[in-house]
Amino acid sequence: MASDSPVQTPTAAAAPDPDIRAVGGDADLFAQWLVGVRTGFNVPPGGDPKEAPDRFAGMDLSRTRGVFDEGRCVATFRSFDQELTAPGGKAVRADAVTAVTVSSTHRRRGLLSRLMTEDLRAARERGDTVATLIAAEYRIYGRYGFGPAASATTLEIDTAGAGLDPRRTGRPEDLGLPGSIRFADAEEVRKIGPELHDRFRRLHPGAIDRDAFWWDRFTGVVRWSDDPPVFHHLLYTDAEGVPQGLASYTIDETWTHGRPDNLLKVRSLIGATPAAERALWHHLCCNDWVSRISTGKRYPEDPMVSLLPDPRAARITDQWDFLWVRPLDTAAMLSSRVYRTDGELVVEVRDPLGLSDGRFLLTASPEGAECVPTDRSADLTLDTGVLAGLWLGERSATLAHAAGELDEETPGAVVQADLLLGTGRRPWCPDGF
After folding, report:
1. Quick one: which of 150, 65, 42, 132 has its CA closest to 94?
2. Same domain, 283 and 358
3. Active site annotated at which positions (predicted)?
4. pLDDT tens digits, residue range 81-90?
């Protein structure tokens, strides 16, 4: 018998919002989070499950979060403590952001904005000076106040066409340098590398610290299935026997018509002195069985090119914005570096998240600086992302003004900014994270 009451069509319950969880010390949650990272980066989600405990034990997971929906990790985010070298050699506290993914099934839902905003606010409250990240997609991170602050360049050197003297030995004395070069094993590199790198990074604005786990992976103490092949390591020591430079590389072996035609790939080359860098590059270019060298991530204007009798033998194969920086404490950031000359500048800073905005008086000198909030009229008005590039020395105020990225409120302020903020060499960050 039919009912005369209206037919009730059942309605589906609204899907619950995805749940943001802290991974912390939960190994099972971390394993799910790893799958989410691999899925978000479009790599096979399986990986080697035997590696999960090593990753879990070696990584700082205190600020690692995932978004979970119906039992799957659909977005990932991690930050950790970092030191970033400012012009002048001082290291500032940074909130390093990494492992940022959102699965294709959950994009455009504001998940990244929630994760990023919460992390940056916590970093500001914690007292971090800046935040950093390596941007895979250019157009995303400006929304959160980041800006390009240190570029990277990769070159390929044609060693046969470089015009090097065929009588070269590859030893430092070819260049009139003292000291010697020898091979080092992974154990020695693990022992001396951290102290050598600490001396190196103090000389280079944009460089970041390398923690113990970084060195464990680099030297093979911990190896993962996606790690590159084992490296060769070259150590340069000065006339007193002090380690001053380290080059690590692999070689792709190729034979053409019965002759070696190998490609040498530099994985890392650091020097605590210019002489160390020159000696190591010279040695690499003198390898008889190598016809090409891929330099890895180098300075935007690497002085290594000038070592070649024919600099055209080094051609740029890639060049891109690499390290992005976001001010968290504008006054502390501008106070952390040295400046080319004495002077004052008032900057009005706009921040999309309201974390580091305001008007600040910078009193600068080659010995240091002071920066405080002020009621004085602004000389320049700019966004946090533009300020980041100016602060580290990657950008010039003149070019930013020409691009419409900052406003000159006081005539001559753009020139004054370049006089104060300019650096002799653009910043360089050799490491990803």
Report:
1. 132
2. no
3. 141 (proton donor), 433 (proton acceptor)
4. 999 999 999 9
Q: Tell me the C-alpha distance between 386 and 87, whole Å.
A: 17
Residue 395, domain member (yes or no): yes
Helices 413-421/384-392 angle, 10° precision: 50
Domain containing 236: what range? 152-320
- Evaluate whether 320 touches 151 at the Cβ level (below 8 Å): yes
102 annotated binding-site participant: yes
Q: Does the pLDDT of residue 4 top 50, yes or no?
A: no
CATH number at residue 177: 3.40.630.30
Residues acting as catalytic residues:
141, 433
- The closest alpha carbon to 322, from 301, 299, 304, belongs to 299
100 is in an annotated binding site: yes
110 annotated as a binding-site residue: yes
Render pLDDT for 116-125 as a digit per residue (tens, 0 to 9).
Answer: 999 999 999 9
Residue 363 bridge partners (DSSP) = 344, 370
The model's pTM: 0.92
Check whether residue 406 and residue 345 sit in a common domain: yes
